[in-house]
Design brief:
about 400 residues; alpha/beta; 6-stranded mixed β-sheet; 5-stranded mixed β-sheet; about 45% helix
């Protein structure tokens, strides 16, 4: 039998309201004890999914609080089981004493991390992808992450998977028909239909695969690396973006050795700007290690902003070039070529931000429904199987 679990569902600490959830076969029995009832509590149909103002008691009959009690019947709750929510006053002592009363009942226990969602999965209320979407929604920091998580949580990925299942079933039915009725059906037409259905499925899967990197970046945040030689103004530019002195700046070459990160919300998109170590040949072991780490991080970044006086300087940085790279002349407050930027005066910052927004807008448009490596592995595996089919078809 499934265990009856309970947990505080709101963040700990003083607040106006705290919510305690209870779920499992003995939920209503537990609620009845907290309400001080002497007989087993069996809610009427009219009592479900409505807020009831009730007094909450300890097992010894001591008044603990007065709050709202909401009951959910089996099959119509988040977990798919009998469930209750106690909306109490958010003081430490109220939460502590009510949780203690629940733990002493003998037939309930404190829920493990994620156990309510696990029950929803086991009872087929939510799919695994919807659970993942809910998890992402709970930690979303920007509007783009919120939208992406809600799409997955609301079943967008599940709809995609169902579409792929239907296409796969249709492909299998064509193959079975060609085997069972080989003498009655035109093999050319069957192969033509089979190739058509495979192409539709393959095209959709390839689109998801190609858009995974952007989708993953929305979920975890896009990385933008500031790259250049020592003393070109990378740290000054980072401080301008942060609107505070996040990075130490000085005229001494090699001041920045570790990568300094700045979390940035760009019109709802999560961005992490990276202030990397100045790229140069050095005999200092610590600075050399910092340069190597920076180059590795730069090569894995979504966008690189090169602060160089001449484009040829980039060839000596040891980084692979990308179409999305942005090249600017540093210290734009001084005379020179354009486009340029100055972390000291802010010149060129609007130009840079507009360019970044356009690049990221294009990436978001191309993002896929799959958001995790587990999803990508399944898509890649499916494409490999389709490729094998094509080989046997002679296509």
């Amino acid at each position: 039998m499934s265990a009856t679990i309970f947990a505080l569902s709101t963040p700990p600490g003083i607040s106006a309201i705290s919510i305690i959830r209870i779920s499992g076969p003995d939920t209503f029995k537990a609620v009845g004890r907290l309400l001080g009832l002497q007989k087993p509590f069996k809610p009427l149909n009219s009592q479900f999914r409505k807020a009831h103002l009730k007094k909450i008691f300890s097992l010894e009959g001591q008044l603990l609080d007065q709050g709202l009690v909401i009951l959910f019947e089996r099959g119509k709750s988040f977990t798919g089981e009998n469930m209750a929510e106690l909306q109490l006053h958010g003081s430490h002592i109220v939460v502590k004493t009510v949780l203690e009363a629940l733990s002493r009942l003998g037939y309930t226990r404190l829920a493990k991390a994620g156990e309510f969602s696990k029950k929803a999965l086991e009872n087929n209320v939510l799919s695994l992808s919807e659970i993942e979407g809910l998890s992402d929604l709970l930690v979303a920091e920007t509007e783009a992450q919120q939208k992406q998580a809600l799409n997955v949580y609301s079943g967008l990925l599940s709809e995609k998977i169902n579409f792929w299942k239907k296409k796969t079933t249709k492909i299998l039915s064509i193959v079975e028909a060609s085997i069972d009725f080989s003498d009655e059906l035109d093999s050319c037409d069957l192969l033509k239909n089979l190739n058509h259905e495979i192409k539709i499925l393959e095209t959709d899967l390839v689109k998801e695969k190609e858009g995974f990197k952007s989708a993953e970046s929305i979920r975890g945040g896009f990385e933008v690396a500031l790259v250049g030689k020592p003393n070109v103004g990378k740290s000054t530019l980072l401080n301008l973006l942060a609107k505070r002195n996040l990075a130490i700046t000085s005229e001494i070459s090699g001041t920045t050795r570790d990568i300094i990160e700045l979390r940035y919300n760009m019109d709802g998109l999560p961005i992490t700007f990276l202030d990397t170590a100045g790229v140069r040949h050095t005999y200092d072991k610590i600075e050399k290690l910092g340069v190597i780490n920076s180059i590795n991080r730069v090569n894995n970044s979504d966008i690189r902003i090169f602060l160089v006086n001449e484009r040829d300087e980039i060839k000596g940085f040891g980084v692979k070039r990308l179409e999305s790279d942005i090249v600017l002349r540093p210290k734009g407050d001084l005379p020179g070529s354009e486009p340029s930027i100055s972390g000291k005066t802010g010149k060129g910052l609007d130009f840079l931000l507009k360019k970044l927004k356009k690049i990221f807008a294009d990436k978001v448009k191309k993002s896929s429904s799959i958001t995790r490596t587990r999803h990508l592995e399944k898509v890649v595996s499916s494409l490999e199987h389709l490729s094998t089919i094509r080989v046997h078809m002679g296509k």
